[in-house]
Amino acid sequence: MVFFSMSILISAAYAMRTIGLLFTGPVKPQMQQVADLKTPEILAVGLLVAGIVLFGLLPAPLIELSSATVALMNKQISQRLL
Q1: Residue-number span of the structural domain to which 74 is assigned
Q2: pLDDT tens, residue by residue, 6-62
Q3: b vs e for 33-43, b when ≥16 Cβ sit within 10 Å of the residue's Cβ?
Q4: Which stretches within the chain are classed as H helix?
Q5: What is the C-alpha separation between 14 and 5, in angstroms, rounded?
Q6: Number of structural domains, the chain?
Q7: Is the dihedral of CA 18, 20, 24, 28 positive or negative?
Q8: Using CA atoms, how far apart are residues 74 and 17, in angstroms rounded to an integer?
Q9: What is the pTM of this model?
């Protein structure tokens, strides 16, 4: 299952890169002078990406966390329908 998830992530990354190049074209000379991310920005992005990948590969904790809320909402909706 993990290999399947990783293959989906890799193919999505390549698809995004390809579509980005198709819509934006080659890099313009004035854009080559734009500075890359600074260290705090890289750390923040890395933390967000790691969280997304972790919860994408192991979604059970998020599903368990939201199941109580979904059950409560389902109960309220079913009471209003009666």
Answers
A1: 2-81
A2: 888 899 999 998 888 888 878 788 878 888 889 999 999 999 999 988 888 888 888
A3: eeeeeeeeeee
A4: 2-24, 39-57, 60-81
A5: 14
A6: 1
A7: negative
A8: 40
A9: 0.51
